[in-house]
Write a structure and sequence with these properties.
heterodimer; A: Rossmann fold; 13 strands; B: alpha/beta; Rossmann fold; seven-stranded parallel sheet; globular
Amino acid sequence: MKIVVCLKQVPDTKGGVQFNPDGTLNRAAMLAIMNPDDKAGLEAALRIKDECGAEVTVITMGLPKATDVLMEALAMGADKAILITDRVLGGADTWATSSTVAAGIKKLDYDLIITGRQAIDGDTAQVGPQISEHLDIPVISYAQDIKIDGDYVIVQRQFDDRYHVLKAKMPCLVTALGELAQPRYMTPGGIFDAVNADITVWSRADLTDLDDANIGLAGSPTKIAKASDKVRKGAGEKVTLDPKESVDYIMGKLNEKHII
Amino acid sequence: MNIQDYKGVYIFAEQVDGKLSGIAFELLGKANELAKDLDTDVTAVVIGSGIKDLADQLAEYGADKVIVIDDPECKEYRTEPYAHALASAINEFKPEIMLVGATPIGRDLGPRVSARVATGLTADCTSLDIGDFPLQPIPGKEDEQLHKQLLMTRPAFGGNTIATIACPYNRPQMATVRPGVMQRQERKEGAKAEVIEFNPGFVPNNKYVEILDIVKSVSETVDIMDAKILVSGGRGMGGPENFKILRDLADALGGEVSCSRAVVDSGWMPKDMQVGQTGKTVRPQLYIACGISGAIQHLAGMEESDLIIAINKDETAPIFDVADYGIVGDLFKIVPELTEQIKAAKAAKK
């Protein structure tokens, strides 16, 4: 079987966040990692490969430096890697991103597509379900377990107070929770192979099944009106007291605020 | 797409097991404010099986119209029949604004529907307003500024930044809205809505998945989003056995226990007790953070609480940056004694 895993290179939110003058992210200026939910999805794909044999292709859209996450994926055990990169694709919202990635996936054979549930930069959880809509295949979000059963995939989909066990005929798209699978480390042999592997690079011109109206900043229905650092309300009082004084202090505040 | 054809503020009224979710009422509250600014009305779309009687409840909380899509295929939530139902309703009735809860259901349904009707979707909004886009007119292009647009504000980067987003050239303007942020309006007993029964027809295709099993978690916990007082524990609690002292404190105060992501990841507490970016947004009257360092993702879920008290031994913990009152100290010595004093104070008042 053939599995496609969608990856995103994301800024590590522990570092700072920087913007371009037009309000879009200045990705070039930030530290970059493989998005954690995507990495869990990649691990799930590699486990399916280990158990029942599969070809795992990773695909990403981003700046040329996004090859870093593709190399990492290859070193973990992915078989093929594709980078979609082109200046005209920049500034894309989730609609334009999903349209573009779906156009890339249309060039491939696939039974199962795995994306992370959401990326730690945008936190939208939209691109996976939107790709499935563009490809007209079923989507199962929030996977906490994935099993293959012949032509079918059986997924545990997590919700607040319950989980569903769902069965879908492949091709199907599944979005992975971060806790789906603990990612493996790269192996020295894997790193060696990755360095020697070819990464396929596609530009806008390679994506034939894609309308210009649906790409990049101009093809994004949502527009950023304003972006700014969050203003926090600021710290109040901070005291260092022994335990008894601490209790008296809290009791005083609770009384003052009429909580007790 | 002729934008002028799209009118009215619509909400997706989420229901589970025939019971409306809290977010449905919150969305109605916000939708009424937006509708006032736009001089239009509010429509709720409710999808399910055997759910016609929910229309009255939606009317009492502010729906002028209720579109009921009632079909056995929609009994339990599945992406496909629901996406077909909501997308069909949008195509038929042409809303100007379509609001969906940023719940697990809404965050799955929203993107699928927005892609099908080819419009934008802004995720996890914490504020919605009607205003101009661009916010300031561009000199020389004043007449290109659009008015009465939906301005959707949301945190990104785990709460590090705030972005305001518009969807000026596509309709409907769609947003998912974080639960626990918008205020519901007072119930108007006996209020009635115009009820429209709509069935777009459901023909199973490749996108319909089969539900093999539904496993409900057995925990009897109360929804932490409804709690007025939360006593919340983090990694500093050391282990699940130590949460008893938080439970005792919560009981003494008449509150509930919640926790940080680290606690859930360690398997100490169930996911539905998690506060934060990937958990729940809470705004209780009192939030007591015990042994929580205060990762930015956690702060994003609780910093709107009315009063925040933090107890942590690390005086550099970021939780102190949002706490009204921060105590640098050993929670294991402070919390049990605090519980006793609160019990004593309450007993003395009786």
